[in-house]
Design brief:
The chain is α+β, with helices and mostly antiparallel strands. The protein has one domain: 2-Layer Sandwich (Alpha-Beta Plaits), CATH 3.30.70. Helices cover 45% and strands 25% of the residues. The chain contains eight helices and eight strands. Strands 1, 2, 3, 4, 5, 6, 7 and 8 form an eight-stranded mixed β-sheet that branches. β2 and β3 form a beta hairpin. The protein is globular and about 60 Å long. The N and C termini lie far apart (57 Å).
Amino acid sequence: MKPNLRSSEDRLWSLIEQRTHPDADIAAIDARIWDLFGQEWAVMFTDLSGFSRHTTEFGITHFLQIIWEQRRHLDPVIERYDGILVKSEADSQLILFKRAEVAMRCALEMMATCSLINRRRREEEMILLCIGIGFGQLLRVGDSDVFGQQVNAASKLGEDTAKAGQILVTDAFKTAEAGVVVRSYEPLAVEVAGSAVNWSAMYEEAPPPSLQRK
């Protein structure tokens, strides 16, 4: 069966299938894959803290409401910074940005927006956001998925490592951001798959820039 030449996903998996052949020129196939799909992006994973605890205590519908409110308030922020939302799964989101400094500005506004909302809420109703960000070459397959070491690292930082209010970044992201937005990072005593050196962005809580302009 011939691959669908209009489908990025079909093209990728056709090339992956070719890698399995005993006489495959794996280096040449990999070069084709990276030539077709390789792109440089900042990749952000967001997560909500307390999913299991709050679901057990208040029920799944309560937490679904928090997820809905997260998207209602934060999706416009992502749009303002030209983020590309690749995936939303339960309380997690995968977002791409072309430039590291733009990704960081978006992350800061997302945190500021949550902080402003949370001031008026009980603890169980708060949007407790965690963020992990990486930067580098990855395989982008249309608008459906991305693969790469920095993707894996950002996922581990945002979904498994970060606490509420933390923005954790890989060393590759810190280098790319170059202190344009965040002047201070603290070293993180955590290694994750895809990034041995990682950092916590230090920032002061402030009103969202969109409100500062009003």
